[in-house]
Write a structure and sequence with these properties.
This protein has 428 residues and is mainly α. The protein has 22 helices and no strands.
Length: 428
């Protein structure tokens, strides 16, 4: 069976290079494996349907809908205004506000693309209006958007948890400290760049203006508090948290801020269905292909090879980091995750690496991949918003990769950064 799978995989990769949609190529590879392996062809649709029958996976469309509502309800405007009031008085203040707004928005959307396309649109325009060059505005927006999927809630962590059978609540908690470290590292980089480029600053707004900014954003700021507090208190699961957050976002948009009406909901629902359809198609066909890999014992073969090659857990994690950073340069994060999870997680388990730490490292690597050329999807979004070429965007992002890579190394070398909070809250 392993020989058959090794014959099918080159054909599959060729199909990817020819531009065949990923979910189609994975589905066809699974069908080919079943056909040539003399398995009943009906097993492929069974595996596809079986993978969709997952309670944790319900969180995906709900978090997507919540992000769409937050963007449409004008909540991002209030968040950015509050962030500017808090840190805009620092040199390069709008860069700091950009990062702080991403931290706040991360507790709502869980998506780097949603962050870049939502609050990022407002941030880039405000920075350009104040005299920041488009490259700096776009680069800091792209870099700070990677915080979105690390601080809970997180769509990639939901997908990872479902695919690798890891506690989604544990993954969510594991992302809090690294997410804040990412914000701190990026702000430290802003301090250096602000002095070098003599970036502008706002006058200190005073307590009264800070209070006004907080009151305007209060109910929006309560979203991550409700989500995180409810999960930590055990009131609801991460999947139920997605439903609570979606309902809360609808209440904010319709009754508190009154920034959209019931007539807008069908369009938001359609946008959510379109995005969810893409995600589920990938997850479901990846499950079928994962079954093929398991039957052919590819993970069981590759895992010991990696173990023998690495020799110890730290070397293994460094190899994984290099592999994922390289793959992230050429493949969309969700696709890379679904392909590599069944191959790499068994080897991590053999080394005794905490599955929550490994999940966080996995997701963080691929989120950095969203801002690395040539396939960084967040780079495409921010370059389009800032109206600069992708080549200019690719050059501008390079310095901002350094603090993010520093955080990646920190969570790799020091596991408590990812395991302490889940162990504390979940009582492990």
């Amino acid at each position: 069976m392993s020989t058959l799978m090794l014959q099918i995989l080159p054909v599959w990769f060729t199909a990817l290079l020819l531009g065949v949609p990923l979910f189609v190529s994975m589905g066809l590879a699974a069908v080919a494996f079943a056909f040539f392996g003399a398995f009943p062809l009906g097993i492929v649709p069974q595996k596809i349907a079986q993978s969709a029958n997952s309670f944790p996976l319900l969180a995906a469309p709900l978090f997507i809908l919540m992000g769409n509502i937050m963007n449409s309800a004008g909540i991002t405007d209030r968040i950015f205004a509050f962030a500017t009031a808090c840190v805009g008085w620092l040199r390069g203040g709008l860069c700091h506000a950009n990062i702080l707004a991403s931290v706040i928005f991360a507790g709502m959307s869980g998506s780097a693309v949603a962050d870049a396309g939502g609050v990022g649109t407002l941030e880039i325009k405000a920075m350009q209006d104040e005299g920041y060059d488009p490259e700096t505005a776009a680069a800091i927006t792209a870099a700070s958007a990677t915080i979105g999927p690390i601080i809970p809630p997180s769509l990639p962590m939901v997908i990872y948890g479902v695919s690798a059978d890891v506690s989604i609540g544990g993954l969510f908690l594991a992302g809090v400290i690294p997410g804040l470290l990412m914000a701190g590292a990026l702000m430290a980089m802003v301090v250096y760049v602000a002095r070098k480029k003599d970036l502008p600053r706002h006058p200190f707004p005073g307590a009264a203006q800070l209070w006004v900014g907080y009151k305007e954003a209060h109910w929006a700021l309560m979203t991550p508090v409700i989500l995180f507090g409810g999960m930590m208190a055990g009131i609801f699961t991460p999947t139920e948290a997605a439903a609570v957050a979606t309902a809360y976002a609808i209440v904010l948009g319709l009754f508190v801020y009154r920034s959209f009406s019931l007539n807008d909901l069908p369009e938001l629902a359609v946008q959510t269905v379109e995005t969810t359809g893409v995600v589920l198609a990938l997850v479901m066909t990846a499950a079928a292909l994962g079954w093929c890999l398991s039957i052919s014992r590819i993970p069981q073969t590759v895992g010991p090879m990696l173990v023998d090659l690495a020799g110890n857990p730290l070397v293994f994690l460094l190899i994984v980091n290099l592999l994922l950073l390289f793959v992230g340069c050429f493949m969309e994060a969700l696709a890379a995750m679904l392909i590599l999870i069944p191959i790499l997680t068994p080897a991590a388990s053999q080394f005794g690496i905490d599955p929550v730490q490994f999940g966080l490292i996995f997701v963080l690597n691929l989120m950095i991949g969203t801002i690395t050329p040539p396939v960084g999807v967040v780079l495409f979004v921010t370059s389009k918003i800032a109206k600069i070429s992708f080549e200019a965007m690719s050059r501008a992002i390079v310095p901002w990769l350094l603090p993010l890579l520093g955080v990646l190394l920190a969570v790799t070398f020091w596991p408590p950064l990812t395991t302490w909070l889940p162990n504390l809250v979940l009582g492990k």
